[in-house]
Design brief:
The complex is a heterodimer of chains A (126) and B (191). By secondary structure, chain A is mostly helical. Chain A is built from four helices and no strands. The radius of gyration of chain B is 18 Å and the shape is globular. The chains are: A mainly alpha (126), B mainly alpha (191). The complex binds zinc ion. Zinc ion binds next to helix 3 of chain A.
Chain lengths: 126, 191
């Protein structure tokens, strides 16, 4: 087994929180690392790197003033765009609703005419 | 998640706008920090923060309380940053050289070994900034912010195996640069 083949595994094993070769799950790879100073050193260096990266989490930048105000303005602006869109959509719904009412009225009218005619027919038959 | 934050999240989920605004105030510096790390400059980071909170506002009803609010917000930030980077790459007028260095760092809480720690921290920040954005995003999200591989892949719009390949490339570059093994030092200095 070549050291080069193990580098990704060493980095991933360092995530386990220890730099001891025992963190390596794969038995063949672990046997190699236990007998290889270079891989042991590389594992230890990956462990240091991961710890340092993890510690960056506590670092919080201070944004230049006005960020929160910008966020609120952006929300407001999007809210207005949304309101305009729903207004337009609302009008469309109202318009479509109007048409539906008209259609129903027309339908009802037609039905009434039909009934009236039938009535007349019935009367005529009797 | 701290109790006050949990309460704010619950109120915001039920449509309380003031609670959402309070959440923005409580988390904006952290969101900005992640955006800055992913994008490498202040202006883009600010744009992405605005977009992140807009998406969070629209989606907060769908946020399930079982995951951490901060993790949820990091995922949205990562996704917005990826979209932004994609757009930036398409009309590539920005100069990489004028990207501002990481500044205004909050003081270290560990007074012991402060000089050494902050020295390593500076070098690490510098090395991170030099990574190509594709590699940087994956290592920042995984190794600094602890997002799972599958979340990183989903937010960056890549496969999980691509995310893992990028992660290893990024780790390897940083390891060689900051913690070179005997024989690697010459190469690291040449980079
Ligand atoms: Zn070896």
């Amino acid at each position: 087994m070549q050291c080069e083949e193990l580098t990704e595994l060493l980095a991933a094993s360092a995530e386990a929180g220890s730099a001891a070769p025992s963190v390596i799950v794969d038995a063949r790879a672990r046997a190699h690392v236990e007998g290889c100073l270079r891989c042991q050193a590389e594992l230890a260096q990956y462990r240091k790197l991961l710890r340092a990266l993890h510690n960056l989490r506590t670092e919080v930048l201070t944004p230049a003033p006005g960020l929160v105000a910008d966020v609120f303005a952006h929300l407001e602006e999007a809210g207005e765009r949304h309101a305009v869109r729903s207004l337009v959509r609302g009008r469309r719904v109202a318009y479509a609703g109007g048409l539906a009412v008209a259609a129903t009225a027309a339908g009802a009218g037609a039905a009434y005419v039909l009934v009236a005619r039938r009535g007349r027919k019935l009367r005529a038959a009797s | 998640m701290p109790d006050e934050l949990a309460e704010l999240v619950a109120a915001a989920r039920s449509g309380d706008r003031a609670a959402f605004e309070e959440l923005v105030r409580a988390t904006s510096a952290e969101t900005y920090t992640l955006a800055y790390r992913l994008l490498g400059n202040e202006e883009d980071a600010r744009d992405v923060v605005q977009e992140t909170y807009l998406r969070a506002y629209k989606g907060i009803e769908r946020f399930r309380g079982d995951s951490q609010f901060s993790t949820w917000l990091y995922r949205i930030t990562a996704n917005c940053a990826a979209t932004y980077l994609g757009r930036r790459a398409r009309h590539r007028h920005d100069e990489l050289s004028d990207e501002a260095p990481l500044a205004d760092v909050s003081p270290d809480r560990d007074p012991q070994g402060l000089a050494m720690a902050s020295n390593l921290r500076d070098r690490l920040n510098e090395a991170l900034e030099q990574l190509p954005p594709r590699l940087k995003a994956v290592i920042v999200l995984r190794d600094v912010y602890d997002l799972p591989h599958e979340a990183i892949a989903a937010e960056l719009g890549i496969t999980e195996s691509a995310a893992k390949v990028r992660l290893h490339r990024a780790r390897r570059r940083l390891r060689e640069q900051l913690f070179p093994l005997p024989g690697e030092e010459e190469e690291a200095r040449a980079v």
